[in-house]
Write a structure and sequence with these properties.
Shape: elongated
Oligomer: single chain
Strand order of the largest sheet: 3-2-5-6
CATH class of the largest domain: Mainly Beta
Order of helices and strands: HEEEEEEEEEEEEEEEEEEEEEE
Number of helices: 1
Number of domains: 3
Structural class: mainly beta
Length: 275
């Protein structure tokens, strides 16, 4: 009798662990490839697991998320929405978990753009160089959807496979170039755009090569007369596309002007003389 009692006590003590094991979550393992025949992505993935039913806010609740490559989630039986993101490329699957562990593979159909730009054959390393990546389609107003940017040079942008409209801006005035580039799944497209621009510094001086005179207000006009730049700095620096311009400077109640030309890749100091 005593032996039976001890057996019942042991079974009761073990029951919570047995019940927990029965209700424990199953393992969901998720992995991704950039292309169907590509290697498993080892880093850069963002995994999100959503519940299968909307909450009170009519949105699917976020249950768990992880970053990296192949990941695993312990989940109770049920239906879930799995969202995989790799840069700007994404994929979604609805899965049901019952009694067995699951390995779910995602094919991201993703590649990348590695962007740079040159001026007169020299690679531009200036932080004023940026890239914007747009969708290829235009709406009724001619606008395109911004996909990524601004991003700096020598950066790999992960994107879904497809064709993109890329804009390279050098400075914030008028130096820009455009190109349509194709991204292939599992590959990185290397692209170097050619900027036709240069860095210009302005100085108001009493003699050539002299120190800049203070109390100045600068204006730069394009050849047709469009106002492109204004500054109250003593010696401002700007980036302009190649072409002809007029620099005018106000000093006190007088205005002085000087015409100059921008040559691609040629950094120069434009001096306006006090007369």
């Amino acid at each position: 009798m005593l032996k039976i009692l001890f057996s019942l006590i042991a079974l009761a003590a073990a029951w919570p662990d047995f019940a927990l094991a029965q209700n424990a979550g199953k393992e969901l393992i998720v992995e991704a490839r950039a292309s169907a025949k590509g290697a498993t992505i080892e880093s850069g993935m963002i995994w999100r697991v959503f519940g299968g039913k909307p909450g009170e806010d009519k949105k699917l609740p976020l249950i768990a998320s992880k970053r990296g490559g192949t990941s695993s989630f312990s989940l109770p039986a049920g239906t879930y929405l799995i969202h995989a993101a790799y840069g700007r490329a994404s994929a979604t699957k609805r899965i049901s978990i019952s009694k067995a562990d699951i390995l779910e593979s995602f094919v991201m159909e993703a590649g990348g753009l590695h962007l740079n730009a040159t001026a007169a054959g020299a690679v531009i390393t200036n932080s004023a160089l940026i890239f914007m990546v747009y969708g290829i389609d235009q709406d009724d107003q001619g606008n395109r959807e911004l996909i990524a940017g601004p991003v700096g040079a020598d950066t790999i942008i992960r994107l879904s496979a497809g064709t993109y409209h890329v804009v390279s801006k050098f400075g914030d005035i008028n130096a820009s170039v455009r190109a349509e580039l194709q991204v292939k799944a599992g590959k990185v497209t290397q692209a170097t755009l050619q900027q036709r621009a240069a860095i210009i510094s302005l100085k108001f001086v009493s003699r050539k090569g002299g120190d800049p005179i203070a109390n100045t207000a600068w204006t730069v006009l394009s050849e047709p007369g469009e106002k492109l730049f204004e500054s109250n700095s003593v010696s401002p620096t700007l980036i302009l596309s190649e072409g002809k311009y007029e620099a005018s400077v106000r000093n006190g109640d007088k205005v002085y002007a000087h015409n100059f030309e921008v040559v691609t890749g040629k950094k120069q100091v434009v001096e306006v003389l006090l007369k």
